[in-house]
Task: structure prediction
Amino acid sequence: MKLVTWNIQWGRGVDGRVDLDRIIDHARRFADFDVLCLQEVSDGFADLAGNDDTDQFAGFASRLPGFVPIAGIATDLPGEAGKRRRFGNMILSRYPVLQTFSHLLPWPPQAGVKSMQRVALEATLDTPLGALRVTTTHLEYYSPQQRRAQVERLRLLHHEAWMQSQNDPVGSASDGPFHVPKRGGPAILTGDFNFLPDSSDKALLTANIDGETPAYRDAWELLHPAAERPPTVGLYDKVQWPQDPFTFDFIFVSSDLAPRVTAVRADPHSDASDHQPMMIELE
Result:
């Protein structure tokens, strides 16, 4: 199983051009992915640099027939002529999707601080590994206070989901929405976290939760504990990121899934966004 995660900056490359076909081409060149997790997907935001009001959620779904598309909307605002303006994350899965959740993350009010609503998009996938819970997110950039609250919520969500995965489903198909499939226990958490590898936010996210819940582990560190981490931001876009390249993008796995991780890498070649895609492979 191969999963690719990427902050695509609404498909805008270093050349300033928005191109969804290029995003798919570069992602496929990087890995023959079974699951694709995207951050910064846009619909109706023509005021973003290089963008128009195209529904990119529908655009990616149409470009990947055979994949189940799941949209996680963080921002939903009125547009023109009754159209909505939406912004958020997306999961596209080659595997059947058993259950999805769009968790709106905490947004503590801070006067005068630019920020936006954030979402963690979760899906339980029916994979060859069994039921696997995949979550992709994009945490707050400008506010450390908001980002910390979002990290704490991700820990609570993981604990709740794992506890639910230990229970057998209750009810039958005749119970309608009360009959739900079993939630995935083993978990992958991906995305643009807007924190650095040595930050206290990352340390908190990967800290032990209790004596039962398998804690999140940094997949890169599992396989490359002594190797230099590949940067994922600012390799090519020196207008937005004039400093040395650095890392904001991570893939975490629950500790019970850690023995199945066989490869983790970042793509150093793509200039189709200001971020680099990352890939994890499990067996």
Notes: The longest strand covers residues 68-78.
